[in-house]
Amino acid sequence: MTAHSLEPLRPWKKEQLGGGYQVSTWVEQTAVLAANAVIAVSSAMRNDMLRVYPSLDPNLVHVIRNGIDTETWYPAGPARTGSVLAELGVDPNRPMAVFVGRITRQKGVVHLVTAAHRFRSDVQLVLCAGAADTPEVADEVRVAVAELARNRTGVFWIQDRLTIGQLREILSAATVFVCPSVYEPLGIVNLEAMACATAVVASDVGGIPEVVADGITGSLVHYDADDATGYQARLAEAVNALVADPATAERYGHAGRQRCIQEFSWAYIAEQTLDIYRKVCA
Protein backbone atom coordinates (compact mmCIF):
# COMPACT_ATOMS: atom_id res chain seq x y z
CA MET A 1 0.00 0.00 0.00
CA THR A 2 1.01 3.62 -0.48
CA ALA A 3 0.31 6.05 2.34
CA HIS A 4 -0.07 9.73 1.50
CA SER A 5 -0.99 10.86 5.02
CA LEU A 6 -1.58 9.44 8.49
CA GLU A 7 -4.93 9.84 10.22
CA PRO A 8 -3.53 9.97 13.79
CA LEU A 9 -1.51 13.02 12.76
CA ARG A 10 -4.56 14.82 11.33
CA PRO A 11 -6.78 15.32 14.41
CA TRP A 12 -8.62 18.18 12.69
CA LYS A 13 -10.27 15.55 10.47
CA LYS A 14 -12.54 14.78 13.43
CA GLU A 15 -14.14 18.17 12.80
CA GLN A 16 -14.91 17.16 9.22
CA LEU A 17 -15.70 13.44 9.58
CA GLY A 18 -17.22 13.19 13.04
CA GLY A 19 -17.49 9.52 13.98
CA GLY A 20 -16.15 8.63 10.56
CA TYR A 21 -12.70 9.67 11.76
CA GLN A 22 -12.54 6.59 13.98
CA VAL A 23 -13.49 4.44 10.98
CA SER A 24 -10.87 6.00 8.68
CA THR A 25 -8.23 5.63 11.40
CA TRP A 26 -9.10 1.94 11.86
CA VAL A 27 -9.08 1.29 8.10
CA GLU A 28 -5.67 2.91 7.76
CA GLN A 29 -4.18 0.98 10.68
CA THR A 30 -5.58 -2.30 9.36
CA ALA A 31 -4.19 -1.70 5.88
CA VAL A 32 -0.76 -0.62 7.11
CA LEU A 33 -0.27 -3.55 9.46
CA ALA A 34 -1.57 -6.11 6.93
CA ALA A 35 0.52 -4.90 3.99
CA ASN A 36 3.44 -6.87 2.58
CA ALA A 37 5.08 -3.57 1.74
CA VAL A 38 4.30 0.04 2.57
CA ILE A 39 5.35 3.03 0.47
CA ALA A 40 5.78 6.35 2.27
CA VAL A 41 5.92 9.48 0.13
CA SER A 42 8.82 10.99 2.08
CA SER A 43 11.48 10.01 4.59
CA ALA A 44 9.74 12.20 7.15
CA MET A 45 6.53 10.26 6.61
CA ARG A 46 8.37 6.96 6.97
CA ASN A 47 9.62 8.14 10.36
CA ASP A 48 6.09 9.19 11.31
CA MET A 49 4.69 5.79 10.28
CA LEU A 50 7.18 3.89 12.41
CA ARG A 51 6.39 6.17 15.34
CA VAL A 52 2.61 5.94 14.96
CA TYR A 53 2.66 2.18 14.27
CA PRO A 54 5.55 0.85 16.40
CA SER A 55 4.74 -2.80 15.60
CA LEU A 56 5.31 -2.15 11.88
CA ASP A 57 8.45 -3.86 10.55
CA PRO A 58 10.81 -1.07 9.36
CA ASN A 59 12.08 -3.35 6.59
CA LEU A 60 8.63 -3.24 4.98
CA VAL A 61 8.49 0.55 4.73
CA HIS A 62 9.99 2.10 1.59
CA VAL A 63 10.31 5.74 0.56
CA ILE A 64 9.15 6.72 -2.92
CA ARG A 65 8.36 10.39 -3.30
CA ASN A 66 5.56 11.72 -5.46
CA GLY A 67 6.54 13.10 -8.83
CA ILE A 68 5.65 15.89 -11.22
CA ASP A 69 4.96 15.96 -14.96
CA THR A 70 7.17 18.79 -16.16
CA GLU A 71 5.51 18.69 -19.58
CA THR A 72 2.21 19.63 -17.91
CA TRP A 73 3.66 22.02 -15.35
CA TYR A 74 6.06 24.47 -16.98
CA PRO A 75 6.65 28.23 -17.09
CA ALA A 76 3.79 29.88 -18.95
CA GLY A 77 4.25 33.00 -21.03
CA PRO A 78 3.13 36.49 -19.97
CA ALA A 79 -0.54 36.78 -19.03
CA ARG A 80 -2.70 37.83 -21.97
CA THR A 81 -5.93 39.77 -22.21
CA GLY A 82 -8.71 37.42 -21.17
CA SER A 83 -6.44 35.46 -18.86
CA VAL A 84 -7.61 34.54 -15.38
CA LEU A 85 -5.26 37.09 -13.80
CA ALA A 86 -6.42 39.86 -16.13
CA GLU A 87 -10.04 39.02 -15.37
CA LEU A 88 -9.33 39.25 -11.64
CA GLY A 89 -7.71 42.63 -12.05
CA VAL A 90 -4.30 41.53 -10.81
CA ASP A 91 -1.70 44.20 -11.55
CA PRO A 92 1.12 42.62 -13.61
CA ASN A 93 3.48 45.38 -12.47
CA ARG A 94 3.17 44.53 -8.78
CA PRO A 95 4.73 41.50 -7.06
CA MET A 96 2.41 38.62 -6.28
CA ALA A 97 2.35 35.91 -3.62
CA VAL A 98 0.20 32.90 -4.50
CA PHE A 99 -1.40 30.07 -2.54
CA VAL A 100 -3.07 27.03 -4.10
CA GLY A 101 -4.85 24.45 -1.98
CA ARG A 102 -7.91 23.31 -0.13
CA ILE A 103 -9.39 25.24 2.76
CA THR A 104 -8.44 22.99 5.64
CA ARG A 105 -6.58 23.50 8.88
CA GLN A 106 -3.79 21.31 7.51
CA LYS A 107 -2.97 23.84 4.78
CA GLY A 108 -2.50 26.79 7.14
CA VAL A 109 -4.50 29.27 5.05
CA VAL A 110 -5.38 31.50 8.01
CA HIS A 111 -1.69 31.67 8.96
CA LEU A 112 -0.91 32.99 5.47
CA VAL A 113 -3.74 35.51 5.40
CA THR A 114 -2.70 36.80 8.82
CA ALA A 115 0.94 36.97 7.72
CA ALA A 116 -0.10 39.01 4.67
CA HIS A 117 -0.85 41.99 6.93
CA ARG A 118 2.95 42.23 7.22
CA PHE A 119 3.67 41.94 3.49
CA ARG A 120 5.18 44.92 1.71
CA SER A 121 2.43 47.29 0.63
CA ASP A 122 2.97 46.53 -3.07
CA VAL A 123 2.62 42.76 -2.70
CA GLN A 124 -0.61 41.23 -4.02
CA LEU A 125 -2.01 38.02 -2.54
CA VAL A 126 -3.82 35.54 -4.78
CA LEU A 127 -5.58 32.70 -2.98
CA CYS A 128 -6.72 29.79 -5.13
CA ALA A 129 -8.59 28.12 -2.32
CA GLY A 130 -11.85 26.22 -2.23
CA ALA A 131 -13.42 22.94 -1.10
CA ALA A 132 -13.50 23.78 2.60
CA ASP A 133 -13.42 20.83 4.98
CA THR A 134 -16.12 22.35 7.18
CA PRO A 135 -18.35 25.45 7.24
CA GLU A 136 -16.46 26.57 10.36
CA VAL A 137 -13.04 26.67 8.73
CA ALA A 138 -14.57 28.31 5.64
CA ASP A 139 -15.98 31.06 7.86
CA GLU A 140 -12.60 31.56 9.55
CA VAL A 141 -10.90 32.07 6.19
CA ARG A 142 -13.71 34.33 4.95
CA VAL A 143 -13.41 36.60 8.00
CA ALA A 144 -9.61 36.68 7.76
CA VAL A 145 -9.65 37.55 4.04
CA ALA A 146 -12.26 40.26 4.55
CA GLU A 147 -10.20 41.86 7.30
CA LEU A 148 -7.08 41.74 5.15
CA ALA A 149 -8.90 43.30 2.18
CA ARG A 150 -10.07 46.17 4.39
CA ASN A 151 -6.47 46.97 5.26
CA ARG A 152 -4.66 46.61 1.93
CA THR A 153 -5.23 46.45 -1.80
CA GLY A 154 -4.45 43.54 -4.07
CA VAL A 155 -6.22 40.72 -2.24
CA PHE A 156 -7.81 38.16 -4.57
CA TRP A 157 -9.61 34.97 -3.60
CA ILE A 158 -10.52 32.44 -6.30
CA GLN A 159 -12.90 29.82 -4.90
CA ASP A 160 -13.89 28.18 -8.20
CA ARG A 161 -12.10 25.12 -9.49
CA LEU A 162 -9.43 26.15 -12.00
CA THR A 163 -8.07 24.28 -15.00
CA ILE A 164 -4.46 23.15 -15.09
CA GLY A 165 -3.81 25.81 -17.70
CA GLN A 166 -5.19 28.54 -15.43
CA LEU A 167 -3.19 27.29 -12.45
CA ARG A 168 -0.07 27.10 -14.58
CA GLU A 169 -0.60 30.73 -15.61
CA ILE A 170 -1.04 31.86 -12.00
CA LEU A 171 1.93 29.90 -10.66
CA SER A 172 4.17 31.12 -13.48
CA ALA A 173 3.21 34.75 -12.90
CA ALA A 174 3.81 34.58 -9.15
CA THR A 175 6.80 36.28 -7.61
CA VAL A 176 6.66 33.67 -4.88
CA PHE A 177 4.50 30.66 -4.08
CA VAL A 178 3.63 30.23 -0.41
CA CYS A 179 2.91 26.89 1.27
CA PRO A 180 2.01 27.56 4.94
CA SER A 181 0.97 23.97 5.76
CA VAL A 182 1.08 22.75 9.36
CA TYR A 183 1.16 19.09 8.20
CA GLU A 184 2.39 17.90 4.83
CA PRO A 185 3.79 14.41 4.13
CA LEU A 186 5.31 15.70 0.88
CA GLY A 187 3.57 18.75 -0.60
CA ILE A 188 3.14 18.12 -4.32
CA VAL A 189 1.83 21.66 -4.84
CA ASN A 190 5.36 22.88 -4.16
CA LEU A 191 6.56 20.69 -7.02
CA GLU A 192 3.93 22.24 -9.29
CA ALA A 193 5.14 25.74 -8.42
CA MET A 194 8.79 24.75 -8.80
CA ALA A 195 8.10 23.14 -12.19
CA CYS A 196 6.66 26.50 -13.26
CA ALA A 197 10.01 28.07 -12.26
CA THR A 198 8.60 29.94 -9.27
CA ALA A 199 10.43 30.47 -5.98
CA VAL A 200 8.78 28.88 -2.95
CA VAL A 201 8.33 29.97 0.65
CA ALA A 202 7.14 27.01 2.70
CA SER A 203 6.89 25.71 6.23
CA ASP A 204 9.50 23.20 7.33
CA VAL A 205 7.02 20.47 8.30
CA GLY A 206 6.92 16.85 7.18
CA GLY A 207 8.35 16.08 3.77
CA ILE A 208 8.46 19.67 2.53
CA PRO A 209 12.24 20.02 3.17
CA GLU A 210 12.72 17.00 0.89
CA VAL A 211 11.09 18.98 -1.94
CA VAL A 212 12.01 22.61 -1.27
CA ALA A 213 15.78 22.96 -0.94
CA ASP A 214 16.28 25.83 1.49
CA GLY A 215 18.40 28.57 -0.03
CA ILE A 216 18.42 26.82 -3.41
CA THR A 217 14.83 26.53 -4.67
CA GLY A 218 13.14 28.56 -1.97
CA SER A 219 13.01 29.50 1.70
CA LEU A 220 11.87 27.25 4.54
CA VAL A 221 10.12 28.82 7.52
CA HIS A 222 10.05 27.11 10.89
CA TYR A 223 6.54 26.18 12.06
CA ASP A 224 5.88 26.12 15.80
CA ALA A 225 2.39 25.04 16.81
CA ASP A 226 2.83 26.92 20.09
CA ASP A 227 3.86 30.20 18.45
CA ALA A 228 1.43 31.10 15.68
CA THR A 229 2.35 34.79 15.80
CA GLY A 230 6.04 34.05 15.38
CA TYR A 231 5.33 31.67 12.51
CA GLN A 232 3.21 34.24 10.71
CA ALA A 233 5.90 36.89 11.16
CA ARG A 234 8.53 34.54 9.72
CA LEU A 235 6.33 33.77 6.71
CA ALA A 236 5.94 37.47 5.98
CA GLU A 237 9.67 38.08 6.43
CA ALA A 238 10.54 35.32 3.96
CA VAL A 239 8.06 36.58 1.36
CA ASN A 240 9.25 40.17 1.71
CA ALA A 241 12.89 39.10 1.39
CA LEU A 242 12.27 37.42 -1.98
CA VAL A 243 10.11 40.26 -3.24
CA ALA A 244 12.96 42.65 -2.40
CA ASP A 245 15.47 40.46 -4.26
CA PRO A 246 14.06 39.54 -7.69
CA ALA A 247 17.37 38.06 -8.84
CA THR A 248 17.36 35.52 -6.01
CA ALA A 249 13.69 34.72 -6.59
CA GLU A 250 14.43 34.10 -10.26
CA ARG A 251 17.44 31.94 -9.43
CA TYR A 252 15.37 29.87 -7.00
CA GLY A 253 12.71 29.44 -9.66
CA HIS A 254 15.12 28.14 -12.29
CA ALA A 255 16.77 25.82 -9.77
CA GLY A 256 13.37 24.51 -8.71
CA ARG A 257 12.42 23.52 -12.23
CA GLN A 258 15.73 21.73 -12.72
CA ARG A 259 15.23 19.90 -9.44
CA CYS A 260 11.81 18.72 -10.61
CA ILE A 261 13.23 17.46 -13.91
CA GLN A 262 16.21 15.72 -12.37
CA GLU A 263 14.79 14.26 -9.16
CA PHE A 264 11.01 14.01 -9.41
CA SER A 265 10.25 12.57 -12.86
CA TRP A 266 7.35 10.11 -12.96
CA ALA A 267 9.37 7.67 -15.07
CA TYR A 268 11.94 7.30 -12.29
CA ILE A 269 9.25 7.02 -9.62
CA ALA A 270 7.28 4.45 -11.62
CA GLU A 271 10.38 2.27 -11.93
CA GLN A 272 10.97 2.45 -8.17
CA THR A 273 7.35 1.48 -7.51
CA LEU A 274 7.46 -1.38 -9.99
CA ASP A 275 10.60 -2.70 -8.32
CA ILE A 276 8.82 -2.96 -4.98
CA TYR A 277 5.83 -4.72 -6.56
CA ARG A 278 8.18 -7.21 -8.19
CA LYS A 279 9.84 -7.97 -4.86
CA VAL A 280 6.49 -8.41 -3.10
CA CYS A 281 5.22 -10.76 -5.82
CA ALA A 282 8.42 -12.80 -6.07
TrEMBL record:
One MF term in the entry's GO annotations: alpha-1,4-glucan glucosyltransferase (ADP-glucose donor) activity
GO biological process: glucan biosynthetic process
Residue ranges occupied by any Glycosyl transferase family domain in the UniProt entry: 88-259
Keyword Phosphoprotein included in the entry's annotation: no
EC id: 2.-.-.-, 2.4.1.21
Domain (Glycosyltransferase subfamily 4-like N-terminal) ranges: 2-71
Gene3D superfamilies for the chain: Glycogen Phosphorylase B
Keywords: Glycosyltransferase, Transferase
NCBIfam families tied to this protein: glgA_Coryne
Family matches, as PANTHER family: ALPHA-MALTOSE-1-PHOSPHATE SYNTHASE, GLYCOSYLTRANSFERASE
Name of the protein in question: Glycosyl transferase
Organism: Mycobacterium tuberculosis
Gene: glgA
